[in-house]
C-alpha cells in the first residue's frame, strides 16, 4: 500500500543521468512528466518498455509529457543501455534507492535474492508537480497500463 496519494505534490528528487549530469524533477515544472521506474537495464521486459516509449515519443511530445526512466542501475550501465537502444529521453540512476523508497516502489527482495530493486511503476506528474496517476506493479513481467496513462495525459492538456 502506497503512502502517496493522487493530487498531492510528487516527491522531489535529484538523480544522476546516464550522461552523468544531475536531473531534478523540478527542472520539468511546466511540463507533464511520466516517471517510469524499471527493475534493470538489459532485461527483456525493461528493454521492451523503454523501446516502446522511444517509439511513441511523438505521442508524448504532443501531450507535452517528458519521460524519465529510473532504475537502480549505475549511470554507466544506463549509458550503455541508452546507447544500444537509441533511447531519446533521460535515464536516471537511483543507485542509492532513495527515490524508489520515496515513491514506495522498491522491491526489498527480488528474483535471485537480489535486494532493493525498483518495482516496475508509472507515475504521471502534472505541470504543477502533483501526482495524477500512480501504478506500482508487483509482477515485473507486466507493463504499466499505457492506455490509462495516455488518457490521463490527454486530460491534463
Please write out the topology:
Blueprint: E1 14-17, E2 22-24, E3 32-37, H1 44-55, H2 57-62, E4 65-71, H3 75-85, E5 91-93, H4 98-102, E6 106-109, E7 115-118, E8 121-125, E9 131-136, H5 146-156
Parallel strand pairs: 3-4, 4-5
Antiparallel strand pairs: 1-2, 1-5, 3-8, 6-7, 8-9
Description:
Strands 2-1-5-4-3-8-9 form a 7-stranded mixed β-sheet. Strands 6-7 form a two-stranded antiparallel sheet. It is 29% helix and 27% strand. The chain has one domain (14-156): Glutaredoxin (3-Layer(aba) Sandwich), CATH 3.40.30.10. The protein is an alpha+beta fold and 157 residues long. The chain starts with 13 loop residues before the first strand and ends with a helix. It has helices at 44-55, 57-62, 75-85, 98-102, 146-156, and strands spanning 14-17, 22-24, 32-37, 65-71, 91-93, 106-109, 115-118, 121-125, 131-136. 35% of the residues are buried. The protein is globular. It is built from 5 helices and 9 strands, in the order βββααβαβαββββα. Strand 4 (65-71), helix 3 and strand 5 form a beta-alpha-beta unit.
Amino acid at each position: 500500500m502506497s503512502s502517496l496519494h493522487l493530487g498531492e505534490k510528487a516527491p522531489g528528487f535529484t538523480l544522476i543521468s546516464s550522461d552523468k549530469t544531475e536531473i531534478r524533477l523540478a527542472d520539468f515544472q511546466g511540463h507533464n512528466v511520466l516517471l517510469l521506474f524499471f527493475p534493470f537495464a538489459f532485461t527483456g521486459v525493461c528493454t521492451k518498455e523503454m523501446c516502446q516509449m522511444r517509439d511513441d515519443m511523438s505521442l508524448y511530445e504532443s501531450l507535452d509529457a517528458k519521460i524519465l526512466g529510473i532504475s537502480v542501475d549505475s549511470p554507466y550501465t544506463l549509458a550503455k543501455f541508452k546507447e544500444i537502444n537509441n533511447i531519446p529521453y533521460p535515464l536516471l540512476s537511483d543507485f542509492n534507492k532513495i527515490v524508489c523508497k520515496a515513491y514506495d516502489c522498491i522491491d526489498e527482495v527480488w528474483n535471485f535474492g537480489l535486494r532493493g530493486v525498483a518495482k516496475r511503476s508509472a507515475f504521471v506528474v502534472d505541470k504543477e508537480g502533483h501526482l495524477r496517476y500512480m501504478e506500482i506493479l508487483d509482477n515485473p513481467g507486466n507493463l504499466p497500463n499505457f492506455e490509462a496513462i495516455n488518457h490521463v495525459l490527454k486530460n491534463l492538456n
